[in-house]
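Q: What does the predicted 3D structure of Negative regulator of dna transposition look like?
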Amino acid sequence: MNVLYLKPEFAISVSYDSYHIREKKDNLKQKTSRNHIFQWFQVEKDYNMSKTPYVDAVSTSLPSVLSDLLTSFDTISLDKLETLIRFCTGATCPPRIAGHAGAWTSGQTRVQSQLSVLNQKTGEKRNRPDDEVGEAGTSTANGSGAPSKKQKLGLTDSADDSQALYTLHSVSVTAPIRKKVDISIRKEAIHLSNPSSGSLEARISVESITRAFLVSTLARNKNKEQWMVVLLSADSFDKKSESSDHTQVMFSIDKDVPAGKEGFKTTSGLKSQVTHSKGDPTLPLLQEFLACLPSHIKVITADKGSQVFSSSSGQPYVDAYRGAKEGTLVFTEHGILWGNARPCEFFALEDLSKHSESPVEGGVKTLSATGRTFTVFVRRRASGEDIEEEGEDEDDDDQAEEEIEIAMIDGKEKEKVDSWIRKYKHLFGKQKGSPVVDKKGKGKALEEPVPDFGQDELDSDGDEDDEDFAPDESDGGEPSDDSDSDEAESAEEGGLDNDDDDDDDDDENDDEIGDNEAENLNADKLDPAHHPLLRPGAMPKMSKAALEAVVNMVEGDLENNEDEEEEEDELALE
């Protein structure tokens, strides 16, 4: 409820919690009532004389039980209390300490953040008076015993978080919420706070984060270059599981600080807030921000002009669609990131299916029907624990795979993607530190160790063998020396012949293997300049004469079929 007091050239609005003076240059209708004039002078006198308007506003709003709290303060104490209330409520810096306005503003931001943590319970659902709360937050009303709903995004676990290590101010995030917030990394968690009020919007435990990405991108419908930051708690996203198990943080910042009145602001630890002017690079700021993450989180960077993958635009990704969702497919040395969309997913090389020459199998395959666009099929184990062990059949792994289709990719990027596949296909499905198995059998066989027999064993074996080869009576005595020599010569000649045959077979097999390897290398190194059908968007052409020949053949078949049907009808009538 407001009361309006009028005076020539002024209009003063008085409310219960504050005073506001508003000058009117228009000619206002004068009120000659003596009561109105007296009340206006009294309000103006009180407003000018009061040096502690915030304390007065609090004192007039206190309930009767607390009305005597301010009576024990003297004038000096009231001035200090006035400054404290100004600081806590977000008011402007007093004129007597105007030289510390920067520290005043940054301190207010920290205080608001801490106060929002203390007031976190205000967002929880209020229990009914007749409901009893049991252990672990369960409600026993009506005998249900169901657990009460917790506040989203882990806000209830933030009471013991430490001081912020690094903060990015006024950043527009797309996940886990779509809002402009202050992002701060702390020792225990990542806080997303409201820039003006400092209230906590979301909290993500740093222990749940497993991967971090820093990717060079282009803003949609713009030519402005940006840095995209993605933090993942899991490589895959399962809608059936709880959202807290798959928390993601994603935001983008221009590579150079854009023009603006306030600029881009950051805060490092307990230092004062720093404002970065137009044109300053943001990459060092983001690197310092990500460096505050725990050591178990590996930051994967994909910059423009990367040696790992570079599209026709020079960026480390290609635009694509997954179903109806538009996003980007980022190719890195550790795997493939589906980003710039909600939710993001990462396909690690070790989680992909092992490479296969079959067009319907393998970790990553490309397929193009028209040549203008193509599709990437990514096959991944359904769970990261499906590792092939000794004695397991490959059919078991195939049953535990899932296939993801990412389509509508520009055809001119197909050769770039195929080159990445050829470069990293030997790492598909290989766990880190595991030996590479030669499935084609081209490796050299290991020589088996020769057992070391003792001399006594050799002598005993020789005696037993000699007894088995006793001369027959039909031979008429012992064999002659000539026969022994002939047999020895024939055995040596036969052995030499067999060895030569084996060597020839080995040479032929080696030649065949070498030819096959050469053919595979030549197939991989085909130059699109000499093979028009390998160029992006190429389609095989057919001459007009060939088309007419095919049409004539089809028409001839149709005429023959009609004649046969007429003959069958005539025979049926007879």
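A (community wiki): The structure tokens above were generated from the sequence. Residues 164-302 form a domain with the PH-domain like fold (CATH 2.30.29). The chain has a mean pLDDT of 72.
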